[in-house]
Amino acid sequence: MPQSEQILEQNLVKQLEDLKYEKVSIRDENDLLCNLRNQLEKHNYTKLSDLEFQQVLNKLSKGNIFERAKILRDKVDFTKDSGDTGYVELINQVHWCKNEYQVTNQIKMEGTYKNRYDVTILVNGLPLCQIELKRRGLEMKEAFNQTNRYQRHSFQAGKGLFQFIQLFVISNGVNTKYYANNPIKARNFKQTFFWANKENRKITQLSDFAEIFLEPCQLSKMITKYIVLNESQKILMALRPYQYFAVEAIVERVKTSKKFGYIWHTTGSGKTLTSFKTSQILTNLPEVKKVVFVVDRKDLDYQTIKEFNHFSQGSIDGTNDTKSLVDQFNDDTKIIVTTIQKLNTAIHKDRYRNQMERFRNERMVFIFDECHRSQFGDTHKRIKDYFEDVQMFGFTGTPIFADNAVRNELGKRTTKELFDECLHKYVITDAIRDGNVLKFAIEYISTFKKKDEVVDIDVESIDKAEVMEAPKRLEGVVDYIIANHTRKTHNKRFTAIFCVPNVNTLIEYYKLFKAKKLNGDHDLKIGTIFSYQANEEDADATGEINVDPMDMQQAAEDPADYETKHTREHLEDFIQDYNEMFKRNYSTNDFYSYYKDIGKQVKDKQLDILLVVNMFLTGFDSKTLNTIYVDKNLRYHGLIQAYSRTNRILNELKSQGNVVAFRNLKKRTDEAITLFSNKDAIEDIILQPYENYVDKFDQAIKRLLEITPTVDSVNDLPSENEEFEFVTTFRELLRIKNVLNTFTEFNFKDLDIDEQTFEDYKSKYLDIRDKVRNDHSKEQVSILDDIDFEVELIHRDEVNVVYILTLLADLKDAKPDEQVKKKKQISDIMGSEAQLRSKKELIERFISENLPLITDRENIPEEFESFWTVEKMKALEDLSIDENLDQEKLNRLIANYLFTEKQPLRDEVIETMKEKPGLRERKTSSERIIDKIKGFIETFINGMG
Question: Global pTM?
Answer without folding.
Answer: 0.69
